Amino acid sequence: xxxxxxxxxxxxxxxxxxxxxxxxxxxxxxxxxxxxxxxxxxxxxxxxxxxxxxxxxxxxxxxxxxxxxxxx
Length: 72
Fold this sequence. Notes:
mainly alpha
């Protein structure tokens, strides 16, 4: 019995540490995905607001001239 305990004690210490690390990283990934989804939603809302206010032009409109551009 003493041999088995001396063989497996590192597993008893490392297993909870690895489990805690895994749970922490999965929580961080889930939080990042949630934050990215809310960022996409806010950008979509801002785009819809800009379109409804007429700040976005039609596809057929010519783009504004770019000033300060040097030709090579």
